Amino acid sequence: MRIVVLAGGIGGARFLRGLKRAVPDADITVIGNTGDDIHLFGLKVCPDLDTVMYTLGGGINEEQGWGRADETFHLKEELAAYGVGPEWFGLGDRDFATHIVRTQMIGAGYPLSAVTEALCDRWQPGVRLIPMTDDRVETHVAVTVPDGGSAGGGERKVIHFQEYWVRLRASVRAEAVVPVGAEQAKPAPGVLEAVAQADVVLFPPSNPVVSIGTILAVPGIREAIADAGVPVVGLSPIVGNAPVRGMADKVLAAVGVEATAAAVAEHYGSGLLDGWLVDTVDAGAVERVEAAGIRCRAVPLLMTDEDAAARMAREALALAQEVRTA
Ligand SMILES: O=c1nc2n(C[C@H](O)[C@H](O)[C@H](O)CO)c3cc(O)ccc3cc-2c(=O)[nH]1
């Protein structure tokens, strides 16, 4: 079975680990979000690609869900001693090596897709990991930073997604989320081919705006998925009207979508999604999602461990089969 998965960071990576366990013989292609990418200290950092690569390759820091296990931060401390930041982004020594190799290869003329393949030669994630595009796309967030005054004023600015997410911890209101460069970007080699050859396309419980939404913003990808003629099944990242992890509710508000399992399904829409899994606590949403033309089932959606993630993957594939034979 050929499975294409659109993935962000932690949620996507953990789901993929479950999927591999559920269907060990499947041929899995992962289209990774690169809107979170950031240039720091002259290096290109790809948090979501690395989170998938490290998680499936056995090198992830399990507690954090990002970055390397058994990490040290000497380089970051030395940079800080020179007054060179940012200090708010935790790049460890082992992780730095990945960014150095990536940046060196890009400088030598290799596209990001080829670099990612080379990095995966070491990690052997057991899936084909392709960035959504080789072109530069950076998600920016328009915010108003309060001036602290009683008039409720503040400075409106546009900041990098990582500054909004990591430094500000989404504590200021996001007014708009813009995947800068997406409109001009082309899908990376292999992306459209993988979708065209897929038997099923899955949207893990990743962020619908800044992860999956960014991938779908690359011209051609949404259309290829909608036209593939195979079941497209997603899993809700919202459980009981709150994100399972992260701050997806904050960016959903910025695009005018309420943080409920049903609203996220409607946001993707029946033109794209054929099936949607909601958590059992959201069983009441099933009717609304089905009324929107999307087949819906309520099953446990908390990825408490690898077995739970594998059960979710099996449910997603079962729903895909149901859609296919309907
Ligand atoms: O909350 C944090 N997330 C960090 N993340 C996670 C990441 O910024 C976001 O969670 C994702 O971009 C959202 O998908 C990192 C990921 C990397 O690959 C490398 C370094 C970091 C550093 C941080 C960090 O300092 N704090």
UniProtKB/TrEMBL annotation:
Enzyme Commission no: 2.7.8.28
UniProt source species: Streptomyces chromofuscus
GO BP terms in the entry: F420-0 metabolic process
Function of the protein: Catalyzes the transfer of the phosphoenolpyruvate moiety from enoylpyruvoyl-2-diphospho-5'-guanosine (EPPG) to 7,8-didemethyl-8-hydroxy-5-deazariboflavin (FO) with the formation of dehydro coenzyme F420-0 and GMP.
Keyword set includes Magnesium: yes
Catalytic activity: enolpyruvoyl-2-diphospho-5'-guanosine + 7,8-didemethyl-8-hydroxy-5-deazariboflavin = dehydro coenzyme F420-0 + GMP + H(+)
Pathway: Cofactor biosynthesis; coenzyme F420 biosynthesis
Gene: fbiA
InterPro entries listed in its UniProt record: CofD, CofD-like_dom_sf, FbiA/CofD
Protein name: Phosphoenolpyruvate transferase
Key words of the record: Magnesium, Transferase
PANTHER family recorded: 2-PHOSPHO-L-LACTATE TRANSFERASE (PTHR43007:SF1)
Quaternary data: Homodimer.
Pfam short name (any one): CofD
Family under the similarity heading: Belongs to the CofD family.
